[in-house]
Amino acid sequence: xxxxxxxxxxxxxxxxxxxxxxxxxxxxxxxxxxxxxxxxxxxxxxxxxxxxxxxxxxxxxxxxxxxxxxxxxxxxxxxxxxxxxxxxxxxxxxxxxxxxxxxxxxxxxxxxxxxxxxxxxxxxxxxxxxxxxxxxxxxxxxxxxxxxxxxxxxxxxx
Length: 158
Description:
The chain is α+β, with helices and mostly antiparallel strands. The chain has one domain (4-157). It contains six helices and nine strands. It has a seven-stranded mixed β-sheet. Strand 7 (141-143) and strand 8 form a beta hairpin. The longest helix has 13 residues, at 52-64. The N and C termini lie close together (10 Å).
């Protein structure tokens, strides 16, 4: 898949877009590229108490989304050790995030249509370590960064 993709009208540039980081460029090795709505992303990440500076950032991002584009927002995911033994009684957990301002600007200007989001794996795991069943479990539900269970579907696979 190309580093620059258009999803709907939104330009995603995982090399030069606002918020792009090296992990974005290697997502097919480092984790998963998924489609997720801005509201779901914001539900999984820590809440953002929007202050005037935050609103300025969100407004600025709206101005560059069609020119510079955005690096895909991402969530860091912790996979329960039990999953590797076939025990899916625990949910995967979001442990960190990047992209709330981008997602708020997307939600405000583009609506709640799914956009490219990257799921980066913690604990030295890579995409090759995940089974189809693990991915289905993540789609079905996760624990948000605040510790709240969130039922899916969380995302779609590209």
